[in-house]
Every structure is written in structure tokens, then in C-alpha cells.
Sequence to fold (165 residues):
Amino acid sequence: MKAFSLLAVLLISISFVSCDDVEDKSPNQLSGTWEDRFYVDSVDYWVVNTLEFKSENQYQFRTTVRQTETGSDLGYRFYYDDSYEWDGETFSYSPDLASWIDHREENFYVPKEELNAGIIDYFRMPTASLVFEENNTKMIFQENCQEDLLPCEDPFEVKEYVRVY
Fold:
């Protein structure tokens, strides 16, 4: 009986471990706000790329500037709201209306109202591979290169986002 009890406990333990290994590939996996932060020493500011997933297919991307890594935003450099598709492996998006800082602007950031609105004209549907790590608190964002349209010797830069809420 003692051996049977130990065997039952072992089987139950294995089932819990195997459940933890299954990745959640639902839209809820994306939910929340994700940040990619980096310090720009030439201007002494933190630049933050934020992906905020607002619903199952709506998100916002913004690039803001901060004095400290996790402080409040001082202003904007880029912004758009758009829709996306997520099949559990490939993130497809195609923003068309966006706002960005004027390249002639002397300031490194401006209030959101002072960004210039424009159209982003993609000649392809951008996609990215998303990999989640550290119990879905870290997201590796790797934009995919379409070899039939672009030279792909140098892959796009990998972005590491952390979930902030």
C-alpha cells in the first residue's frame, strides 16, 4: 500500500510539472503592457518602446523618453494605435496611421500633441516571431524577414520586452 501511495504521489507530481511546460498561446498571453527600455548616453535619457495590448486584436505602440528607466514619461518620439493577428507563433501587424517627432526638431522628445501625423506605407505585411520566457514576464520580439522581398543576410534587431502590467 505504501508503494502504491508513493507511485500515486509521483504520478500526480509529474502531471503538475507537465502542465507547467505547456505554453499559453492565447491572445491573453499578450495582454497587458510590455516595455523595451534602453539608455541613450549621448542625450542622457531612457528611451522606452511600449506595446500595450488593449483587446484581443487592438494594441498601441509608442516610443517615449524618461529621465530614469522606470520613471514617468517626459514626452513622445513615436506613436500609433492599430490591430494585429496572433496565431500563437506569428504576430502580424500593419500600422498605417502614425505620429512621430519631426526630424528637424531640436528637442529629443515632444508632447504627444506636437507629433506629426502621417501614413506608414508598408510594401509587405510585417510579421514577428514572439517567444515568451520567465513565466510570461519576458517577450522576445524578432521581426521576420521576407526573403522574397528583402535581403536577409542581416536579421532585424531582436527586442526584449518585459511585462510591466
Summary: The two ends are 48 Å apart (CA to CA).
